[in-house]
Structures are given as C-alpha cells and as structure tokens.
Known about the structure:
Blueprint: H1 6-23, H2 30-41, H3 43-51, E1 55-61, E2 64-73, E3 78-85, H4 94-106, E4 118-124, H5 128-136, E5 140-150, E6 153-163
Parallel strand pairs: 3-4
Antiparallel strand pairs: 1-2, 2-3, 4-6, 5-6
Helix pairs in contact: 1-2, 2-3
Amino acid sequence: MPVATEKQIIEVEEAAYNVWHNYYRDIFSKEQIDYMLEKYQSRAALKKQMSEGYIYYMLLSDMELAGYMCLLVQSNYIYLSRLYIKAEFRRQGLAKKALCHIDSVFNNPELGFSHIKKIQLRVERDNEFAINVYEHLGFEKVRAEDRDIGGGFVCRDYVMERLITPMN
Length: 168
C-alpha cells in the first residue's frame, strides 16, 4: 500500500525506529542508529524524500503493518532504497512479495517503464542476514563502496543488483 497520508508517514516512522533499533544494534552504535534514523527516517526526512520522488510502501500482513519499502525510479534502474520488515514478520515471504510487486509494476508496458531492466540496492557489508536474503532473491554484489553519511559516520556498503523478472 503506497504511503500517502500523514498517519501513514507516522506509522512508517514508528516502524523504522522499531526495526532499526532492533535489527542494527549489532551492526551500528546506538549513536549511529539514532543519527541515521533522524537523517533518513524521521517524519521530516520521509516527507522530504517523498517530495523528491521517493515512493514509500507499507508492507501489510493481515492488515497489520509488517514493514515498509521505498523506491526511487532512476533513468535506467529502480533504486530499492529501503526494505525493512519487523522481526515478528520475518521469514514469511514478505520481501519476496515486495519484489514481485516491483516486478509486476515495472513489467507493465502501460506504465511506461519498459526501459528499466534492473533493481539496485545498498546493503551494509556487515549485514550478513540481509545479504543472504537478497542473494536468495536473485541479487548479486556488484561493488563495495564506503560512504561518509555525515556526523562522523561511514556506511560500508555492497551495491547489489538483480534483473527485473519478466512476468509470464
């Protein structure tokens, strides 16, 4: 479900705080998590990103918010900026369903995206769980990049890609 209302933005912000503090505590310091949440996932940051073309989706399980994803259409690929699932909803196929949704949207010739053939994302190199999930879903590591995100913090990422799967 696309995020469109103030209430939905607040729900995504709350989900981000839940997921990031739960999931990243073994990867980043609390200070870095707090910094990144404020910079990238606060209500103000979400609104700014949405005004710049980022599209947020709520991932639902039995009408309950199970996670969220964020896409940005680039000139020749889709950037999967975020794909986060709450702990209690992991291992239920939600990431696969989210990618199937992306595939179906970008395979629809009526939407004008036929030139887009791949999905790209970044994942922290120490995030073995997410790397394994993405590889299972058909992503391959393309390169490693270190990014200064400000505040004295650096993200050490893999850039991963996968082709958009044609629908039969």
